[in-house]
Amino acid sequence: MRHGRAGNHLSRTTAHRDALIRNLAAALIEHERIRTTLPKARNLRPFIEKLVTLSKDGSLHRRRLVVSRLHDKTAAKKLFDVIGPRFKSRPGGYTRILKLAKRRLGDGGEQAIIEFVERTPKGEGQPEAKAAEVAQPKAKKPAKKASAGA
Hints:
Shape: extended
Radius of gyration: 22 Å
Number of strands: 3
Largest sheet: 3 strands, antiparallel
Mean pLDDT: 88
Structural class: alpha+beta
Distance between the termini: 95 Å
Order of helices and strands: HEHHHEEH
Strand content: 5-15%
Strand order of the largest sheet: 1-3-2
Helix content: 40-55%
């Protein structure tokens, strides 16, 4: 009997499926738009929407919950600093899934794009550390050697 076996298991063990969803979520947070198969995108959507809901409130407890589910501190930081505040007034529906017409080469799997409904314009989503690195000049050239003929 199949009691309590709802949901698509993606032909993977539980640990493998959990790791896959975490990695897809971290990639989606980093790039704000990823291309994957349709079943993976459909599995990812509820996971990422719950994380965005948690990130709307920046308390320490919520940060720890997100890091424990995501296993990626840099993605969690971007989630709380950039993505969470962007959806502060939105009650839900943070992602969209777009089906692609071309099927994947090899097994013919249906492709899809999953993205956030509101995206960061190019160049604005950089954390302060990266922006500071860009603003600083490159390493200085070594000083000229004094001539020995004096």
